[in-house]
Amino acid sequence: AAKDGGRATYHFFTPELNRRASDRMWTENNLRRALANNELELFFQPQFAVGGRRLVGAEALVRWRQPDGTLIMPGQFIPVAEDTGLILPLGDWVLGEACRRAAELLRHQDLLIAVNLSAVQMRRPGLADRVAGWLSAYNVPAEALELEVTESVLMDDSELVAETFAQLREMGVQLAIDDFGTGYSSLSYLKRFRVDKLKIDRSFVNELKPNDPDSGAIAEAIISMARSLSMQTLAEGVETEEQFSCLANLGCEQIQGYLLGRPMPYDDFVSFLKAQTGEPQSPRDEAQPLS
Ligand code: C2E
Ligand code: MG
Ligand code: MG
Ligand code: MG
């Protein structure tokens, strides 16, 4: 039977699958080294309040910078990290690095720093303690940190996940559901977990058309549901002014997307932030005191 299974697999092993399998193996073999050698880096994508287009936060998005400078995107290595368990050390590094950067950013402006958590991390005992440890290590108030999880996490009926949610809430950490609308969550899950924010998936933003009220039906439903549960809404993947104004009309509170800012390296984000607030770009730009 094992032989038959092997033959069946072989039968569908096209060149495309072959390439993907070897990419995967390469990623698996090199990711551990990348972590040890500090090749991971956080980019930051700005988030804005719809009213006034005010910068209110940033999402930290991990990148893998190869020794030759090439960037590898998370879609290529996060799934592999999840399958191999490497997501635990990787996710812990992300949390620590996000808190370190948050401490620096908060010196410039009040911001909410959002960090993605894998379901694997949520299902592991001790997450709330790790988060508390990083916050206190860098002296970051819990209220400045937002943790994003996907709907699949809400469907986990283990006591552990519910308890972790409760501990994080108790600490004052903000909780958001990422890619909302693409999973299977229901009102009852949302009521049970009581998160602070729903991030409307970019597929629903993408289909918005100015003169077609039906195109906004899902975004509208999510926004009204969030409102009735006292949750905030943020729309992801906003690329055009038309999408922005549709979302504003529907009452969406926050916006993230290429229209207003791409994910960028930390130093670029600091310059972006200073440009927003009118803070001088660097010490050279500042008027030097007369001596
Ligand atoms: P996500 O959390 O939903 O992040 C949003 C993704 O959409 C990012 O892709 C971002 O670059 C992209 N994006 C933002 N604005 C726009 C837009 O206007 N148009 C389009 N087409 N795309 C936009 P990225 O950085 O490649 O990340 C992909 C996914 O990888 C993330 O989706 C998240 O699920 C995961 N990820 C990223 N960083 C981490 C991390 O530190 N930990 C974990 N567990 N997952 C992460
Ligand atoms: Mg996210
Ligand atoms: Mg998302
Ligand atoms: Mg996503």
Automatic annotation (TrEMBL):
Q: Where is the signal peptide?
A: none
Subcellular location as annotated: Cell membrane
Bias (Basic and acidic residues) occurs at 282-291
Q: Which residues form the EAL domain?
A: 24-277
Q: What is this protein called?
A: EAL domain-containing protein
